[in-house]
Structure formats: structure tokens, C-alpha cells
Amino acid sequence: MKPDKEYAVQMHDITKTFGACRALDNVQLDVKKGTIHAILGENGAGKTTLMNVLYGLYRQDSGEVYLYGEKVDIKNPTVAIRHGIGMVHQHFMLVENFTVAQNIILGQETTKGGGVLDLKRAKKEVEELVARYGLQVNPDAQISDITVGMQQRVEILKALYRGVDILILDEPTAVLTPQEIEDLIGIMHRLVDDGKTIIIITHKLREIKASADECTIVRRGQYIDTVKVADVTQSELADMMVGHKVRLSVDKEAAKPGETIFEIDNLQASDDRGLPVLKNLNLAVHAGEIVGLAGIDGNGQKELVEVITNLRKADGGTVKIDGKEIQNTTTRNTMNSGVSTIHEDRQKRGLVLDFTVDENAVLDSYMKEPFSKRGVLNKKAIHDFTSQLITEYDIRPDNCGDMPIRGLSGGNQQKVIIAREIANDPDLLIAVQPTRGLDVGAIENVHKMLIRERDKGKAVLLISLELDEVLNVADTVAVIYDGAIQGTFPQSEADERTIGLMMAGGGTDAAE
Amino acid sequence: MKKWKAAAAVVLTIVLLSFTLTGCSMPQKDDSTFSVTMVTSDGGINDQSFNQSSWEGLQKFAEETGSEVRYIESKQPSDYLTNLDRATDSYPDLIWGIGYTFADPILTIAKANPDMSFAIVDNAYDDTPFNVTGVVFRAEESSFMAGYIAGMSTKTDKVGYVGGMKSAINDQFQYGYDAGVAYAAKERGVKIEVMNQLVESYTDAAKAKAIANKMFSQGADIVFHSAGGAGQGVIESAKDNGKYAIGVDRDQSYLAPDNVLTSALKNVDTAVELVCQEKMDGQDIGGQTLSFGLSDDAVGIPTENKNMDPEVYEKAMEVRQKIISGEIKVPATEEAYNAYAASLGQ
Amino acid sequence: MQRSEFFKNFWRKPIFATIIAILSGFIVAAIILASAGYNPWTSLGALFYGMFGRPKYISNVIIKSTPIIVTGLSVAFAYKMGLFNIGAEGQYIMGALAANVVGYLVDAPAIIEIPLIILAGVAAGALYGGIIGLLKGRYDINEVITGIMLNWIALYFSNYIVNLEIFHKPNTASMYAINESGYTSLFTQWKTTEAAATFFQEHPFIGDIMRTDVNMGFIIAVALTIFISWVLFKTTKGYQLRAVGYAQEAAEFAGIDVKKNVIQTMLIAGGLAGMAGVLNITGIFPHAVSQLSAFESYGLNGLCVAFIAGGSPIGCILAGLLFGGLLYGGQSLQYMAGAPSEIINIMIGTIVFFVGLEGLVGMIVDRIEKRKAAKSKESGSSDSGKSGSGTGGSDKKETVTTETKQEIQSPELKTLETGKSQ
Hints:
heterotrimer, B: 346 residues, alpha/beta, Rossmann fold, six-stranded mixed beta sheet, 12 strands, 18% strand, C: 422 residues, ABC transporter involved in vitamin B12 uptake, BtuC, 2 domains, globular
């Protein structure tokens, strides 16, 4: 498509690589003036990277950007702002103990001259904006006192105050309640009516249907298509988002599930804001079975793991391991009950980066013999144990026991964690995003390890944002959306299209 | 890591040794000049009080006689003994410990160095070692005068006293002052209330100020203090309240020219100078406690008191004469004060 | 190549930065002395003479260092788990006070008396530190705030106890001293005998040392340091503490009870600071707590010591000796050279300041190396004929260019990373 004045944004053949990874590969984007344009894709598909290029946070390796038909070179966010581009990030950048008005004018303060703030005038200007777009917020309220939905409005106001024409919203609904989402969609329509152009990054099909005019789909850095939203169904969108994946071959025999090891009944929990995030979740894992939990980020996976590991309180329901309830006890109790967890955030939760590999290898067993006796560590026993793990799991460099684990590659760090957790000989192994950030070889390795544990008769719960991974490795696939399991399928019956739709909330939409 | 710590130690040692070898040498005993060293208390040399006053006395002594004088500053009470010990290294003819807190350290050091002479300000031993001289001040005499002046000048017939910490020295001020007030009350034929309170510190000016504020708000119009550095709070309070304070040790009118009625002087410098002179003259001053009072001009009140009624000053001078002549026996302890008050018929 | 590698590493060791910091302290002190009209050379000479000039000075330096080493240890220990024990001052005061009270009231043979005093002082310090730990662990109240407030409470509480009639020694500013059986000073009795006097005359070196309060404190301090190192690095307790200190979230996830560890750490740190108080009471004259008009700064100096030592327990011994030396030797700076002893505080401040700027030294080293590399690059291109150094130069050049590249990229990458991780 040629550069055209009718298009607010045109990005042609954008390519961006990070090291060996091609985050964007000849991606196209054409956004008509005065429309809401959605960018749809799975986690890591390249949506945000594309927008960061537009906002000047990254420079593309190749490709051109046009605004209203004019070629532009957006070197940094300042240039982007000058061109009238504003971006509201997923995580707000507000000063907590400033008022709404103070936050809005921050960086572009109205002064009386001589550097004296003219808060009165600023407030008036903010009030005008509020009235014009129906963004109800009190300019005098402190940020720390208002809801997240309000804070988002403040971010939008901030952009408007700077006079943006093109507003990018990065996953704007991730943190909002359903009512707040509806309000936001209303605001977006009013902005468009006023001649603004909005680009919204999302993976929620329902919202796209409700708000966007057009939608561009990207998948693993590739441009897939741009469609008129009115012309497609949710399931068609899901199809394009997930795609027909080439299954990585994972060699494994059929599962021989035994008795139920792990059972969750009607589990309820709240997030940090106190809003319900797990809504009567039910799940069971049998011995000798890998259950894969598929779902898009932010649907309660994180909180589920925290409840199981007792880092978060359950508001209701039970979590049973071998028939014993473990909810609302201690982390140590979860471990002692035979649950080992490979945490998704290995650098923050899984490892003490300043410790040596030896020390990390016994992070949850240091108090047991032979690693310590009457409170005194047995360094030799720990080292021998680690050496054994290093050989067994091919952790490199070998003899790295005395090295700080910080120096190991991500894959090898992950191997240490997996080796450690498996060495605990758990009844249930929970692996959360175990292959995040690993290369293909390492991924295969991790999958093999999980299957080996299954074959030993362990119960394995794999929680992953990669649908591929779940479909390939799990014997049973459970889909989580909005804090509840939407459906459970045996691997043989797991159809990625159905699952993809369910993950994006399409299934529930149809049911409603 | 440990290796580098070791390396650091080596490097440091080399640096330090190079200084030691090339540095100056210790002053050796030099019989030709008379030398005096003083060790300050933890108030430091610029305490606006004894330490500073003693040092001024020594400097004046040095100027007049050409003697060599030095001081060592203590940071905390546990420094006293080590500093006295350091003072002995250069064999001065006399070593001073400033303040009664030196009582024990001086005893210890004197015992370890029978060949040297020591003196201590503000302390009287029951059994003074042969090489130690105690120097005390009859602070109760100047305090009596301060009390008398306060009693004669008060308009509200309420006065206050803010002390430092409970000790025999502090008692001198408190009971001398109280007795002076009582003497004035009898003379005027009225009853004067004295509010007494201790700061429990010689440095906490904020607390002293709070105490004085309370006294002024309860009706006192003159407050005397003997709380060292903390007493500055009393003077500040007088300034804030537009009332009068009576200073201590030195003429403190410079702190608040319009609000300092007078000061109970304790001329430590005079005494220090006198004792040094006697020692230099070859007198045997060891084994005894020398007491300095109004008669030696070692205590008293300033001659200039712009806020005082000249008539009161005249009368105060008469009282002074009576104390020197022994007509008035000034109490320095609670017991003596009680007896004194009884004798006044109060 | 290897040698340059060795030096390169040395320049980057934290200890190098520490040495630079200490030297900077001396240089700044010298400049100030010179500008105030004192000869810096003789002044600093007097300082070092005051530290090492006579055997007894060295002995006194060690004696002065002892409590600071132990409070430093207390701070370093708490710091290992990320706690800033500014309350060491108050714990020291409480330890000393309890030691004094028990040592005075109980008169038992040394074999019972000394352990009893230690127990009392350590327990008092530990409980006092435990309050901070409890408030931090249970209610998440910042330990710096509670520490500072408790310091003041300790100061006034101590003064109150000192002034109680049963404890206050009349006509002094202190309490009654502890019973002699509680002294850890060595040879106190024998020192004053005739035999000792003659012995000292024959052995002036020992005699000189014996003039000081030679006591077992330093040995105890060293033993404590070794013990604390052992606890930190060889026991499960230390393992837990360090895990919490390095990565609280990971420790939590591994089932380590963070709150409990906070409380325990503060108990131990408080006990150590209390022990410093015990060492002073049992070891040195006047063996009693004095009325305090201000903090004696044992805790605050301990903070500096731990800081200079980079939190290493063994480093605390060296840093403590440096501190004790400066504080003690500083008095002769004034006594002998006539320079104000405040210069020592300036010096200490400068050292701490420069240790805080440790990163700066690393940056300067980087800068110097880059400049050198750039020069060698220039010379390499213009004068490629030079043998030997040519390869080394080009080698360096490569590393430098990649380094600068990284630097240019890093701000961007950082925003990316933070954006992602949040």
C-alpha cells in the first residue's frame, strides 16, 4: 500500500531483531485516520515491539514509517510526541502522591513565567479536557487514592494534554474490571469522534469486536493479515492469531494415569487489589499424567501458583495433595507435602543470583541431611550432590559448583532449578513457564525431563502461555480464562482452534 | 577476597610506617622550661565553660611565665585515663584533669606515676595522695550572691533554679542560691518561692529551655542555672519570655544582653593560673585541697550588670563582704541548707 | 598479558577502591591542615606517632578498636540480610548498662562472674535489638526509624539508671564499678606489685604496654568475628540469612520464613552490640557506665566500620583497627602538632564518603583504560611497526569497542527490561 494522507500511521516492512531473535519480520501496519485499529497476537508475537518502534523506544532495523503520508524518522519518544503520538503503557507512569492535575501537566508545566507553576490555569485546562471527552476524574484527587481505571484515564488525559492525534493503548484492559472496560470503550469512541486515531494492543477478541474498526494480526513476528472487524467472527480471529501450528515432535508414550494426586476444588482468591481473580477453579492431576494449563497471561495463573505455594491466601475452596488440604498454611508445608515448583520468574523467585550454584542447588533442602546436620552445613555433601546434578543434567560449564549462578546462561540456570526440584522427589511437580527465554535445544531438554518424571509415576502440572508447548507436552489440556477452567481435553482431542478461542474468552462469549 | 584484605593490610602498614619513621619525634622531658598539660573532659576544649576557662588560664600563665602549655581533648569518659597517661609521656611539671569526673582517673594515674604532680579542678578527695592537688571553688558563695540578687529583684516573688546533674558540685550552686534567696526574702520580709529542677544533662539545651519555659509560665521572673552548655536553653527561654536569667561560670550576658540579670562567676582560669604559679614557685602543693572563693576573686559576680538595679548591686556587695568576713556562713549541702533555713526562721 | 590481567582485576577489586578512599581521606586532611596553616607532614606524622610511636600506643589503639570492631560486626551481620542496624548504639548502651548492673550487684568468683556479666549484657542488647526486629518483621516498620528512636530511649534510660541512688557513685558522673572479679583486664593485681615494677624496669617494652588496660577484649572480638563468619557461611542459619538478604522473594519461595529471620537477625545483631558494651565495661577503666550527655558513637562508628569493611566480618577487624587508630591517634594530632582533633572526623567522613563512591573508582579505571586503549589504537594505526604491543593493543581495542556499544544500547535495553519485568 502506498503512503497515503488518509492513513494516520503506515509502517511498511518493519524488521527488528534482538540478537538472533527476529522479533519483527517485514511487518505491515496501515491505520486509517479517525479509526480504532486493533493489533492482535499472542504473547510474544511482536505487538508491543511494533508499537515501541512507532513510539521511538526502538529503532527498526529496516522498514519505513509514514504519518499522514509523510515519511518520518522517529528516533526517540520525544520525536514521537512532537509528531502527536502518545502511548499509554500497560503499567502506568504516574507520581503516586501528586494530584491528577499535577500528573497531567508533569513535564509540560504551565508556568506564570519565571518558573512559577500556574496550577490554577493548569487545572482549568485539565477540566476542559475532562468535560470534552467525558473522562470523569477529579483533578484534585491524589493518584494513590483513585482506582486503576481512573489512573488509566489520567494517562489518557496526559497524552491528550500534550495534544496527541494518535494514541497507542498497550493492553489497556488487562488491569480493568468489566465495568471499567465498558467505560474505556466509550471513551475510545468519543476520542475517535473527535478525530483522534487509536491503536489498541490486545489479545482479547471480545473487546476487539466491541471497539475496533480494523484489526491487524501478527503471529511470531510475522504479519498475517489486516481485516475489517465487522467482517470476521471471533473464531476466525482466534484462528488467525493462533495459526496452524507445526507441532514440534515430542516423543512420549501414552500416559498411564493413576490415582488422583492433586485436586483443587472451587478455589477462590483475590489479586493484590482485592478483586476476585480465581473464581471457583477446579482442577485435578493424576499420577503419571501431565496436565497442561493453557491460557493467556493474567487470567489467574500467577495467583493459582501463589495459592498452591502458600504465598497467597485462598478466599475459599480447597487445595489437596494426596488427600491432605494445604491451602492457607505455609510455603514450607506445601513443599513438605510433596509439591515442587519451578517458578516462572527464575531470577527473582527461583534462584538467589548471588549464591553459588552449590548453594542454589539446595535452596529448599539445605536443612535436610546430609546437607546439614544440627544446623551446620556440610559443604562437601552439598558440592557432591551438585556435582552429581551437574553431570546428570548436563549443566554447563561443568565444575561450576563454586561459581555464582549469575554467571550461568539462562538455560543452565533453569536446569539447576529443574534438577533441584526433581531431586526433591515430589509427588507433584509444578512447572510454570519452564521454557521461557530458552533456546530450542534447551526447550526440548526441559520437555524431556518433565516427561521422564511423568513416566516415573509423578503428577506434573505444566502452566504455560505457549499453547504449542501445552499441546505437545501435556496429556490433558485444561484451559484457564478469567480465573476458572473453561474446559478440559485429552491431548488427542485437543484442537487448537477450539482452545485458542476459549483462551481468548471467545467460548464464554458464545455461551453468553 | 581475603587475599586482598591481606594486601590492604600490608599496604597500609607500609604507609603508616613511612610516616612513623619520617614523622616528628616525641617531645622529651626538658628541665629548662616549666611545662603544664591539661586533659579536658568530654565537653571538649571549646565548651564555653571550665575546659575553655582552664585553658585560658593556662595560656595566660604561659604568656606571663614563658612556660609550655598543652591540652589533650577527651571525647568520652573512657578516654580520661588514656589521655592522662599520654600526658605523662612528655613529663610535664603539672598535669591537670578538668572536672570532678577525673577523680578516679587522677587517683589511678597518680599512683602509677609517683614522680609526677597532678591537679584536679572541682574535686576534693577525702584522702588526697601526696602528688595530687585538689582545687575546689566555693561556688555556693557566688550562688548565694546570685540568689540574693534574684530575691531582691523579683517582682513576682517566684524564682527558679535549673541544675545540671545531681552531684556535690551541683549542690553548692543549688543550696547556695536557695540560701541567698531565703536571705533576701527575710530582708524584704516576704516569702519567695524557689522552683528547683535538674536537666539531668549538661548538654541538652532543649530540655533546659523547656524547664525554664515551664518555670516562667508558672510565674517565676528570674531563673538561675548551673547546667553548663544546657543552660544556654535557660537564657534563650528568658529571652523568649522577656524575663531574666542568671548565668553561670562566666559572664553570660553576651548571650542575651537584655535578659541576663547577672552571672555567678567561677573563675577557673584564675585558680588554674594561681595553682600553676605556686607549683612553679616550688611550693609543695601536693596532698591537699585548695579552696577558692570570693576572697580570692575566684568566684563572684561581674562588675557590669546593666539590667540590675544599682541599689541591689550595692547591697549585694555588702553581702559579699559579710561572706568574706564569715558573718554569713553559706550552706553548700542540703543538710547545711536546712540548718541555715531553720536559723533564718523559715 | 597475564600481568596486565592481574592488575586490571586488582583495579576493579572493591579493596582497591577502599584503599583509594583511605588515601583520599588522608589527602583531604592534609589539604585542610595545610590551608589552616599547620604543616600537614608533621601533623600527620604526629597522628601516626600517636598510633604507633610507643608500644603502649599500639596497645591503646587495639583497646580502642575492640568495641568498634564488635559493633561493626553487629552492623555487618544485620546488613548481610539487608537490615541497616543503626540501632547498634542503643544496643551497645543497653549491653553496657546491664553488664554494669549485674557486675556490680553480683560478686562471684571470676569463673562465674564474667560469664554472668556477658550473659546479662548480651541478653540486654539482644532484647533491645529484638524490639527492632519484631517491629520490622511483624509490622514492617522501618528499622532505621525504630533504631534511631530506641537509641535515644537507651541514652536516657541509661542516665536514669546511672542516677539511681543504689547505683550512682557519689561525686562522680558514673555508676559504681563492677566487682573486680568481673574484670577481663589482664594482670590488674600483679601490675601494681613491686615484682611487677622491677620486671617492667627490666623489660621496658612490656612495661610500656602494661601501662594500658590490656584486656582480653580484642581476643574475644577476633573470636567473635571468626564465629560470625562461621555462622554466616557454614550454618543453615547463615545460609537462610544470606538468602533472605540477597533475594528475599526467592528465599520466601524456598520456604524460608522471612519474618522469623528478621527477628532472629536483629536478636543476634543486638547481642553483638551488647557484647561490645560488655567488653568495654569488663575490659577498661572505669569499668562503669558514665552519665552520657551525648552518644559515645560506638554504634555509629560501628556503622562506618561495617561500611568500610564492605560488610565483611573479617574486614571489620581491619576497618575497626583503622578507626580505633584514627580516634586514638587523633588526640595526639592536637596534642603534639596543635592541629584541631576535629580533623580526624573530617578524615573519617572523607573515607566513608569515598568508600560510598566505590563505583566511581571503577568508572575512573574504565575511563583510564579506554583512553589508554584509544591512544594505543591511534598509535597502532600510525605506528603499526611497533612489535609486541601491537597485538595487545588491537586486542584491547576490540573489547573497548564492544563495551562502548553496549553502553550506548544499555539505556534502551534497560527501559525494555523494566517494561517487561513489571
